[in-house]
Amino acid sequence: MSIRRLPEHLVNRIAAGEVVERPASALKELVENAIDAGALRIAIKLAAGGTDLIEVSDDGCGMRPDDMALALERHATSKLPDEAIEAVTTLGFRGEALPSIASVAKLTLESRVRGADGWSRVVDNGAVVSEGPAALPPGTRVRVESLFERVPARRKFLRSARAEFAACVDVIRRLAMSRSDVGFTLEHEGRVALSVQAGQDAPQRVAALTDRALRENSVAVDLAREGVRLGGIAGLPTFNRGVADHQYLFVNGRPVKDRLLAGAVRGAYADMLARDRHAVVALFLELPTEEVDVNVHPAKTEVRFRDPQLVRGMIVSGLRRALEAEGQRSAQRPAESALAAWREEPIVQPDLVYAAPVTAAPPPRAPAMLWERRTGFTAPPPAARAEPAFAPLPATVNHPLGVARGQVAKTYIVAEAEDGLVIVDQHAAHERLVLERMRRAMDGGAVARQALLIPEVVELEETACDRLDARAAELAEFGLELERFGPAAMLVRATPAMLGQGDVKGLVADLADELAAFGEALSLREKLDHVAATMACHGSVRAGRVLSVAEMNALLREMEVTPRSGQCNHGRPTWVKLAHGDIERLFGRK
């Protein structure tokens, strides 16, 4: 078969396959054009998730009739005044979006420059069907109807209208976050689904578009290094989600979904979140245009950095610094559902049977009722304890986490603070404290070790032993001395002294699992962090251990001076606080 030049309409359809994958892709291109045109207000209307209708109206600079004709031709754009594509600062620059969309849908383009009349041009699946004057305010309005109607092979691969609408909302949400100076309104089937005003600051805009509680449960990120600046907000580790869809990353104002950036966020929260939980962040990276290549993906959702290690290091260190600066802060306030679970005890009238003399004869059916009522007295006592204070307790005003008043279920420390009641999970808190001690010991040289009087043999699979044997030198830095003991066993000669008398076999087995799970995907520092976190979990105070008041207060004081003590190594909160106002509401005082 001889080589032939493809006809223009087929070229446009091939280009549409790269740029317009679904309604959300077309919407993204149109809204980016509006932002590049200098719009301060953008209104979007959708029908059937964008499959039947996409309409984008803006108050930007508008286009003249001759520019409108050029805009519907491939590779025609006003965003590249010269050939320096590496210096592009606009969201779009290829000049492919409008002709690609017009080749697979009916596109109506209306525009008006200030001080001139409006003009309209209609293209139906690649063919110009009409043009003429149009009445509209200054700016541009683009209407896309019946997307992929004449390309059934593409249309049948679209998802449900609800799923396509969700994808459109995600696109607008990300673009609205990137430009807090622009107002956005999104309507679907006549209902306003999203609306934000222009002029908001970045944290306010992000919170309005995600979760309003994020602003109270986040920290500000601000770091500059070698001409690169990282800003934004990062949710506290305890304010997490089950999916990574709530991570918003922007490079020079462009929303991106980049594996390098997502991996850096995961690395920064590595020892603060469980594996199945994800941080909530909105990070804005600003760097010189020559340091990043945005022309690596048809939809411009991916970028390539000239120095990826610098960028990754900035994100990891920027997030960690911001989180460490908050000390023991956590997502403190209990959820409304948790508060609602506290119920007022119903007022019961005194039972006359209890007040009657012992010799009184009960009514005929009284014995059964008396027996039922008395079951409450045979119930086990509450699982809580408090000790008499033989020395005066310290004043609560000097301690953010208060002073210990007792222990509940041998697991939770109850403390009184100046502004409320603090409940601490003793295992989760001590787990974080042990991890931070190990880190400090590592930074200072080596972790003290405790030699075992009788070395312990731990039997494992041969592959697990291979992994541990390969990392024996790194594990020794943490005070864990391992030797190979045959093909399917490891000999433990020493353990970290700060772990005390722990479960050695369980520790070694868990470390083997950690190395298998993360393997070569993490840097040495991250692997060491995972090892330290696993050891800390085994060496911490377990739930079910009775603590004295002195031990409880010592734990609280150490938490107050330890970074990241607001959450354990798995992202769970180590303490929560019931403010005085919450307690008063529980008792109907407020």
Report on this model:
The protein is an alpha+beta fold and 590 residues long. It is 34% helix and 23% strand. The chain has an 8-stranded mixed β-sheet. A 5-stranded mixed β-sheet has the order 9-10-13-11-12, with helices on both faces. α6 runs antiparallel to α7, α13 packs across α18 and α16 runs antiparallel to α17. The protein is elongated, with a radius of gyration of 32 Å.
Helix and strand topology:
Blueprint: H1 8-19, H2 23-36, E1 41-47, E2 53-58, H3 65-71, H4 97-102, E3 106-112, E4 118-124, E5 127-134, E6 139-145, H5 152-155, H6 161-178, E7 183-188, E8 191-196, H7 202-209, E9 218-225, E10 228-235, E11 247-251, E12 254-256, H8 259-268, E13 281-286, E14 292-293, E15 304-305, H9 308-325, H10 336-341, H11 352-355, H12 366-374, E16 384-385, E17 403-408, E18 412-417, E19 420-425, H13 426-443, E20 449-459, H14 462-470, H15 472-476, E21 481-484, E22 489-496, H16 504-518, H17 524-539, H18 549-560, E23 575-579, H19 580-586
Parallel strand pairs: 1-7, 11-13
Antiparallel strand pairs: 1-2, 2-6, 3-4, 3-6, 4-5, 7-8, 9-10, 10-13, 11-12, 14-15, 16-17, 17-18, 18-19, 19-23, 20-22, 21-22
The biggest sheet amounts to:
8 strands, mixed
User: With helices defined by DSSP (H or I, 4 residues minimum), what is the helix count?
Assistant: 19
State the secondary-structure class.
alpha+beta
Q: Report the mean per-residue pLDDT as an integer.
A: 80
Strand fraction: 15-25%
Query: Low-confidence spans: pLDDT under 50, at least 5 residues?
Result: 343-379, 520-524
For the largest beta sheet, what order do the strands appear in spatially? 5-4-3-6-2-1-7-8
The gyration radius over C-alpha positions equals 32 Å
Count of DSSP E strands? 23
Helical content (DSSP H or I, runs of 4+): 25-40%
Tell me, briefly, the overall form. Answer: elongated
